[in-house]
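Objective 1b: paired records.
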Amino acid sequence: MFLLPFYIATSSPAPPTIYTWCTFQMIQVNSKEMISAAYGMGNVPTGIDLNGLCQAFYTRDIRAEDKPLELVSSVGAQNTSNPDAFWLANTWRRKLTPAEIEQYDCLINKNGGLALSAKVLDFMPTSPNSIRIPALMLNAIQSINSPIIRYAASVMYTAGLPIMLIAALVKAWKLARK
């Protein structure tokens, strides 16, 4: 009983709280604004793919609301800093500059232009919605940084994928008929 207060006073401090965040940069199409928004993800164990978590959160919770928002980038992060300060530093909105309006033209004006135009190919690494490239493939394309791979990816997703889908359906129909 005599040593209990001494033990309590010398115990190690609790580990710092780890905060998990998804930070999105989006364009609000109807008002031509750039929006950065930080969302707290709660208790996320270490070792989780934060970028995958953020992509799933965007698809399930933000995109599903059918707002005129187009995702430009997303980042998952874990830190021990003050959560209020992190949120304030990563949540803002501003009007797009004329250069950004030109850069993000295919998101703002989805006019259905030529899918393989130079504007879409140059824009593809920063926009998963320009020709609907999945996020993991987009990250792989960015890491290689090759215009030939970008062109091949855009051709595959605009022409190759529908052809492969039709071939798979024909094959499944033939197998079902036997």
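Objective 1b, second protein:
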Amino acid sequence: MNFTLLITVLVTAITLVVAAYVVAKLIGPRSYAKVKGEPYESGIPTRGSSWLPISVGFYLFAILFVRCGNGVSVSMGSGSEGVRRDGSA
């Protein structure tokens, strides 16, 4: 089989990715200040650690909420499927 097209596409893709990376490194900012790494909370300086432990139950509830919320919205529809343009059902 002739894989010339496949090889050409792969080489082109790799070349474009590497070129974009090199250009970003060349023209991107090179300085890093300590202030840039600090969290910003509405202009109020943070005190202490910003990492707080969160219960796994919160994530499970969020996943169930998203999953069930999508199921309800799909099963109920947007509410306009059974109405014609003239307003009759």
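The two ends are 59 Å apart (CA to CA). Residues 61 and 67 are 10 Å apart (CA to CA).
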